[in-house]
Amino acid sequence: MQQLQFDDSLHTGFASIDEQHRLFLDMLSELSSQIEAGQHRQGVLDAFQGMRMYAEGHFDDEEALMQSRDYPQLVAHKRLHETFRAMVAELEGRIGEGPGLVSLETLEFLGAWFIGHIRNEDLRFAAFAHAK
Fold first, then answer.
1. Domain boundaries, the chain
2. Do 10 and 21 meet the contact criterion of CB atoms below 8 Å apart?
3. Superfamily (CATH H level) for 19-131
4. Which of 12, 20, 32, 82 suits a disulfide with 126, CB 3.0-4.6 Å?
């Protein structure tokens, strides 16, 4: 799987959010490494659950920040987070059945979705918030 890395093009200007984005991408890369290495089911499931819980906290923090800045697109942004949560829940169920049921391509899609979300949505919010 292609390495997912946080780079300067993903900076929102909010240090805590940027650090959370960086850590999430690191967790996703670690999970893909475990799957590539043929890690046992429980190890992959534990890593995936940790990543999911981390994303939940990140989304809560991000939405609270958006609310504090009266972001007019907050409701739409929350819906995007819900879409991601649904994808992750489905994948977690598949991992529970066996790590081979989640392909590296699926994790790559998740990473691409997350990076696209930062570029297209989070940076839009950042521009709005920093313009105020």
1. 19-131
2. yes
3. Hemerythrin-like (1.20.120.50)
4. 12
The three-state (H, E, C) secondary structure of the chain, written as one string: CCCCCCCHHHCCCCHHHHHHHHHHHHHHHHHHHHHHCCCCHHHHHHHHHHHHHHHHHHHHHHHHHHHHCCCCCHHHHHHHHHHHHHHHHHHHHHHHHCHHHCCHHHHHHHHHHHHHHHHHHHHHHHHHHHHC
Written as tens digits, the pLDDT of the chain (132 aa) is: 456 788 999 999 999 999 999 999 998 888 888 877 877 777 778 888 888 899 999 999 999 999 999 999 999 999 999 999 988 888 888 777 765 666 677 788 888 889 999 999 999 999 999 997
Amino acid at position 99, single letter? P
Q: Is 88 exposed, middle or buried (0-12, 13-18, 19+ CB in 10 A)?
A: middle
pTM: 0.87
Query: Do the Cβ atoms of 3 and 25 come closer than 8 Å?
Result: no
